[in-house]
């Protein structure tokens, strides 16, 4: 790890200021991706702005027809939250499947979303449930937030403060874990929402996406067989040691069917 | 007393309090006064010329004490401890193995420079400033293709990358057997490369004392005396009396900590050069590219059978990947630890095996839990299972029909080994019963109703442990003896310190050996302390590997105890005014036959050290004895492993739902430790069968599975609750009867798992699947199967 300047602001405004004053500043939330990256010397920011001192960014509350989760809320808190479990049980279950116990006790929802790892679980929840990302500047709809591999709609100096999830009629997440890392080789969140059926897929390629073919099949007939019957084009998926594009494409239909079964 | 803690008692491990409460002392926990830190700059290329190295910026960096490269290194290379001769009588190609590369790098991770600095971070920062001008060269990675003409050459002296081309067995007798065969079963197999992944990464602290001229090396080793001999005599030319090697608590080895590594020599050498102790500890990513790796065989095998399924002959052709250099014991693994095991538990009368060892631009390969024997067992048990399917014979019946009968021991195989004991029917019968084998088809049908493919697989295996005797292994190419030492020091008040040349790094020797000695001397377990791992304390010994510690090291302790008891008997006879021949030793007391005279062991011990009333003209005072034990033969554990799997055809996930292991490990001292050893071995064996695989990019030679993000270690939820049992036939040639247990789990299990996977997929017409049977691979096999799944 190279040396860096460390800032621990107590409010978002100070965090933005610290970031603005840095040559090459980086925000650290749970640090579950950033710290290993620093230790491997794959990144060498001049400054780290730590959000862990900002109490306002943490916490879960019921709001309107859904749940609002502060950006610095740990995965373990979401997994254990009775408010989340009663409003959107699929979200609590998804949080419980992230990483391992240490990661869940440290990692944050805001950190996961800002990082937008193509195999992370939370992006599937946010996109599948049609959540809204709140930042220090604005609100961003899930459909506009994810921009591909580690890319998001966040601008310079923009910090996620919370995520609002509307309560779905029904939702379920099914994850097929990559055997070594246990990230999602394919994770599928299926939700029946007011705006219709949403199917979000993580692990498949350059970032979370909606499987429109499965959404339309399920809109016509919300059954596992309908999801299983959709054959996705492998050309849209990536391949590696653990899964060929064909395998990933087939797993989407299978996991979607299992999610429908659990809805 | 002995019933609760003696031989056969499941005593809780005495070392566990230390380990479980974080109070162990591992090499990285050792800090010497004025200690500096070392960082190794490693090659990012699989093959490249080093045109130039500029260390000037690094040398000027903050905290840097020294930057050393191949040009500075003026000592010897790392030696190979076993020499194989090819078919034509020529010795194997043994390339130079300097701890720091001079002109060329030969695998990703090869050592290029050592930076010594005040802190580890400073050493690492400075290493980034070293400018190395690499001219990248084409690399050869593939085991199968390394020997092909035109492949990139690793060493100019090794034509077609061949290290040796060796054979064993009777070719003409085997050809004749095939000529009269009713059926021949053929198989092509890959035994994939594995990365050992001990929980504790390797570490070394070199400490040169200017005042005395003594060197001390603290290191993560399974055999400190072997390291002292190899590094002292062959690499750094430091005589034994000026070199101490300490292997303190070591967090797992699995073979990978047997070998003498470059880093050990470098920190010791550099400590003398800079006059400061130097610590180096591998990061996990470094362990992936610098710990010797395991397995990596490509084999073709053929089995000749008569019309009744009796084995007539076996032909094997194996290519074994040595990596870029010869690691310490690499050449013996695919030869004398592999091809000599090809008879297995069967009476196959004619066997001929050829083994070609090749160099590639990869991390060196050496012994890893099982070392050669898992490769032999996998080959044989896959081949036998395939033969049974082809001849439409029952998997159990074909094995029974070919077993070496229990009254046939000692049994001479056609591939050099002579087995001393075994009862393969007994372990098979018990395993069949425990696994409810005969009921399996009901379970398969029930699983099918749930849409799952269920299969069962069996492996009846044999292995060889406690490699010996020294004279024989010497004639086969070993450059070392394979005996073991043990000392017993009885203290004046009757407590005992045991010094063993073996080393415990997870095996529980501090408990098992204490039980052995407590039982033998009739003294309480808490009065026995076991010391290991320090060449200044223990007698010269060969260390721990090949499941040898109890059968060889324990036997040395029994011999030392015999000497103690013989001397103590004379002292007791003197005290009781009886003839030594009339004195008996039992349960810790010396008695005179036919009388009520009795004195306890402790009183004899005190007399030995306070020799007031003592036969001083006939006996020296004191009570301390050392013994060296050189076995007469290997030991031959064996048994039956049965695996039952369920496959989810939609995802290709294979779940091990039942696993039964019945092992004959000879005499069991501590059944709980034996069970733990079997569990650990099974986890590694199932890991190889379903999860683990070391993959290099075939073009660039980059390690693609260079972290736990891509290298799949077995985890608790990958494994079932094991059903294990032992059924003992005693080893006939060591005084304990023990055969060894460290490796049985890893040796017997992989073919049982793969045979089960193939059995599960057989209804679809699938005949083969390679290790590891990952979800992807199983799913692909189902997709391309000749027959389709019938709807559930």
From TrEMBL, chain A:
SMART domains: CO_deh_flav_C. SUPFAM superfamilies: CO dehydrogenase flavoprotein C-terminal domain-like, FAD-binding/transporter-associated domain-like. Pfam families: FAD_binding_5. Keywords: FAD, Flavoprotein, Oxidoreductase. InterPro entries: CO_DH_flav_C, CO_DH_flav_C_dom_sf, Diverse_Substr_Oxidored, FAD-bd_PCMH, FAD-bd_PCMH-like_sf, FAD-bd_PCMH_sub1, FAD-bd_PCMH_sub2, Mopterin_DH_FAD-bd. This is Xanthine dehydrogenase family protein subunit M. The keyword Translocase does not apply. The keyword Flavoprotein applies. Residues 1-170 form the FAD-binding PCMH-type domain. Transmembrane segments: none annotated.
TrEMBL record, chain B:
Gene3D superfamilies: Aldehyde oxidase/xanthine dehydrogenase, a/b hammerhead, Aldehyde oxidase/xanthine dehydrogenase, molybdopterin binding domain. InterPro entries: Ald_Oxase/Xan_DH_a/b (IPR000674), Ald_Oxase/Xan_DH_a/b_sf (IPR036856), Ald_Oxase/xanthine_DH-like (IPR016208), AldOxase/xan_DH_MoCoBD1 (IPR008274), AldOxase/xan_DH_MoCoBD2 (IPR046867), AldOxase/xan_DH_Mopterin-bd_sf (IPR037165). It comes from the Bacteria. Keywords: Molybdenum, Oxidoreductase. Residues 21-138 form the Aldehyde oxidase/xanthine dehydrogenase a/b hammerhead domain. Pfam families: Ald_Xan_dh_C (PF01315), MoCoBD_1 (PF02738), MoCoBD_2 (PF20256). The keyword Transit peptide does not apply. SUPFAM superfamilies: CO dehydrogenase molybdoprotein N-domain-like (SSF54665), Molybdenum cofactor-binding domain (SSF56003). This is Xanthine dehydrogenase family protein molybdopterin-binding subunit. It comes from Dongia soli.
């Amino acid at each position: 790890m190279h040396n860096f300047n460390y800032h621990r602001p107590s409010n978002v405004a100070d965090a933005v200021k610290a970031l603005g004053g840095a040559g090459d500043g980086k925000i650290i939330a749970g640090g579950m991706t950033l710290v290993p990256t620093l230790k491997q010397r794959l990144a060498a920011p001049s400054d780290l702005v730590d959000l862990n001192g900002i109490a306002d960014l943490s916490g879960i509350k019921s709001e309107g027809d859904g749940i609002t989760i502060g950006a610095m809320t740990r995965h373990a808190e979401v997994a254990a939250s009775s408010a989340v479990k009663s409003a959107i049980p699929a979200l609590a279950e998804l949080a419980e499947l992230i990483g391992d116990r240490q990661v869940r006790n440290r990692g944050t929802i805001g950190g996961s979303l800002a990082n937008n790892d193509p195999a992370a679980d939370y992006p599937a929840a946010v996109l599948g449930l049609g959540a809204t990302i709140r930042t220090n500047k604005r609100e961003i709809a899930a459909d506009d937030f994810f921009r591909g591999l580690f890319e998001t709609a966040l601008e310079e100096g923009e910090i996620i403060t919370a995520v609002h999830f509307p309560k779905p009629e029904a939702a379920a997440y099914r994850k097929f874990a990559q055997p070594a890392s246990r990230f999602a080789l394919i994770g599928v969140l299926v939700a029946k929402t007011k705006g219709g059926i949403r199917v979000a897929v993580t692990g498949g390629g350059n970032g979370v996406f909606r499987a429109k073919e499965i959404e339309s099949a399920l809109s016509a007939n919300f059954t596992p067989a309908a999801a299983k019957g959709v054959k996705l084009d492998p050309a849209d998926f990536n391949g590696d040691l653990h899964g060929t594009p064909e395998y990933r494409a087939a797993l989407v239909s299978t996991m979607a069917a299992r999610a429908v079964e659990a809805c | 007393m002995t019933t609760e803690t003696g031989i056969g008692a499941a005593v809780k491990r005495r070392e566990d309090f230390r380990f479980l409460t974080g109070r162990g002392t591992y090499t990285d926990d050792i800090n010497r006064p004025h200690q500096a830190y070392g960082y190794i700059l490693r090659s990012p290329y699989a093959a490249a010329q080093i045109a130039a190295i500029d260390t000037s910026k690094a040398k000027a960096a903050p905290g840097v004490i020294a930057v050393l490269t191949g040009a500075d290194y003026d000592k010897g290379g790392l030696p190979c401890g076993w020499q194989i001769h090819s078919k034509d009588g020529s010795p194997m190609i043994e390339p130079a193995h300097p701890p720091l590369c001079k002109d060329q790098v030969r695998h990703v991770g090869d050592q290029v420079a050592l930076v010594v600095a005040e802190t580890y971070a400073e050493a690492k920062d400075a290493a980034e400033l070293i400018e190395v001008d690499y001219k990248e060269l084409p690399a050869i990675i593939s085991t199968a293709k390394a020997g092909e003409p035109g492949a990139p050459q690793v060493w100019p002296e090794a034509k077609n990358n061949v290290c040796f081309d060796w054979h064993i067995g009777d070719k003409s007798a085997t050809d004749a057997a095939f000529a009269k065969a009713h059926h021949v079963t053929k198989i092509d197999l890959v035994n994939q490369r594995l990365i050992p992944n001990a929980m504790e990464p390797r570490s070394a602290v070199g400490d040169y004392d200017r005042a005395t001229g003594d060197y001390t090396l603290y290191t993560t080793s399974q055999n400190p005396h072997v390291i002292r001999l190899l590094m002292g005599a062959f690499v750094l030319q430091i005589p034994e009396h000026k070199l101490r090697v300490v292997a303190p608590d070591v967090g797992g080895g699995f073979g990978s900590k047997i070998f003498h590594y470059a880093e050990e020599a470098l920190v010791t050498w550099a400590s003398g050069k800079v006059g400061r102790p130097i610590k180096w500890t591998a990061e996990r990513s470094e362990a992936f590219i610098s710990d010797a790796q395991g397995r990596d065989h490509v084999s073709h095998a053929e089995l000749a059978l008569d019309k009744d399924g009796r084995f007539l002959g076996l032909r094997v052709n194996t290519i074994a990947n040595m990596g870029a250099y010869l690691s310490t014991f690499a050449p013996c693994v695919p030869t004398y630890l592999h091809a000599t095991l090809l008879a297995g538990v069967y009476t196959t009368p004619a066997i001929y095996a050829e083994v070609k060892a090749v160099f590639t631009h990869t991390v060196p390969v050496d012994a890893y839990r099982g070392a050669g024997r898992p490769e032999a067992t996998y080959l044989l048990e896959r081949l036998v299972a395939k033969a049974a399917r082809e001849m439409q014979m029952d998997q159990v019946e074909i094995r029974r029909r070919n077993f070496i009968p229990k009254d046939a021991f000692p049994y001479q195989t056609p591939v050099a080994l002579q087995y001393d004991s075994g009862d393969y029917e007994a372990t098979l019968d018990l395993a069949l019963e425990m696994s409810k084998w005969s009921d399996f088809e009901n379970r398969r049908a029930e699983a099918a109703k749930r849409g799952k493919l269920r299969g069962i697989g069996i492996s009846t295996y044999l292995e060889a442990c406690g490699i010996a005797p020294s004279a024989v292994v010497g004639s086969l190419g070993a450059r070392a003896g394979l005996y073991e030492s043990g000392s017993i020091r009885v203290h004046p008040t009757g407590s005992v310190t045991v010094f063993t040349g073996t080393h415990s790094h997870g095996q529980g020797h501090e408990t098992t050996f204490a039980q052995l000695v407590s039982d033998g001397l009739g003294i309480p377990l808490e009065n026995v302390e076991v010391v290991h791992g320090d060449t200044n304390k223990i007698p010269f010994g060969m260390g721990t590997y090949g499941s040898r510690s109890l059968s060889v090291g324990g036997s040395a302790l029994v011999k030392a105890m015999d000497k103690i008891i013989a001397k103590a008997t004379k002292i007791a006879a003197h005290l009781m005014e009886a003839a030594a021949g009339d004195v008996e030793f039992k349960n810790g007391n010396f008695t005179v036959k036919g009388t009520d005279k009795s004195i306890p062991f402790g009183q004899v011990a005190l007399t030995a050290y306070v020799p007031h009333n003592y036969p001083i003209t006939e006996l020296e005072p004191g009570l301390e004895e050392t013994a060296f034990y050189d076995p007469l033969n290997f030991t031959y554990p064996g048994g039956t492993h049965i695996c039952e799997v369920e496959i989810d055809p939609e995802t290709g996930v294979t779940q091990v739902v039942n696993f039964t292991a019945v092992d004959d490990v000879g005499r069991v001292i501590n059944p709980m430790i034996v069970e733990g050893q079997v569990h650990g071995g099974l986890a590694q064996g199932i890991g190889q069968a379903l999860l683990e695989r070391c993959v290099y990019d075939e073009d660039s030679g980059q390690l693609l599975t260079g972290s736990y993000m891509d290298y799949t270690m077995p985890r608790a939820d990958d494994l079932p609750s094991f059903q294990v049992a032992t059924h003992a036939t005693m080893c006939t040639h060591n005084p304990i009867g023990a055969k060894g247990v460290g490796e049985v789990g890893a040796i017997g299990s992989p073919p049982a798992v793969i045979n089960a996977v193939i059995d599960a997929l057989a209804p679809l017409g699938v005949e083969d699947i390679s290790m590891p049977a990952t979800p992807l691979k199983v799913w692909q096999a189902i997709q391309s199967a000749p027959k389709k799944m019938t709807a559930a």
